[in-house]
Design brief:
Length: 336
Amino acid sequence: MTTTTPAEPGQPSPGTPPRNTPAPGAPMSKLGIAAVIVTVVLWASAFVGIRAVGPSFSPGSLTLGRLAVAAVVLGIVVLPTLKVWPKGREWLPIVAYGVMWFGGYNVALNAAEHMLDAGTSAMLINVSPILIAILAGIVLKEGFPRWLLIGSGVAFCGVAMIALGSGQRSTADVAGVLLCLLAAVLASVSAILQKPVLRKFTAGQATWFGIMVGTICCLPWTGQLISEVQAAPLPATLGLVYLGIFPTAIAFTTWAYALSLISAGKLAATTYLVPGTTILISWAVLQEVPTIWGLIGGVVCLVGVGLTRRTPKHNRQKAKEGRRASTAGTHAAEKG
């Protein structure tokens, strides 16, 4: 069952076919679930990739390199199908999340990871889903569903367990903590700003616009990137290319696609799975054996995210009635 969202700022311009969005209470499609899984896995791999190439690239040049690669790769896919460009005020949210998320978030996080241990970083970055849930409830009028709040709390406890089991003592200084919290805030605000843009533009288009804005913001690091690429070993350069194609071009697009299907709060809660997934990837790629706390924390995160997906009985009943009504209407139309 789908509903057509009425025209408003960020909506299709006159003459542009409106994009359909799932009705409240409708279950996410298999494609949407696949998009969430791809996002979580690729974003988790980014932490491993950044750790691997970090010695060869500084925070600003690493961000520029990732975005430049992503802009080219995603542009090849998006440009041939792009028929409508943002106009006037429609650029405002795009420029905002392009600057904050693709530019500021990545630079701040890259810089913070030079100062913080893995456990502290995981704890601070995973403030973001909570902030998104709060902002979505206020700004996007998604409200504060009981199971979303309960599940988020449980998942955050899981992240705390993962941080506890990181096997490292905190080496964080004030600057590192502030940078990591800044990254979390920028990501949270950007997710809220991106949601209305997806009413008019596809996930790939909305992502590519933001990547282009972020790339322009990072151009001052061009000279540094060139010199570091020349000095970097081949595996580090290939790692940068990987970060640009997979965690950036692909994962941000699958995130945007999933965001167009479900509430921002519920989608943000799925990112609690990233730290646990990172542990598994590090185990496989870097032979970093997870601690018992890390494994338990990963399971707790899974349980918490599962709780966020629960729906109150009366909402489930409404969804069933809506599907029945839609089916009956379809049959009536076929008979007519």
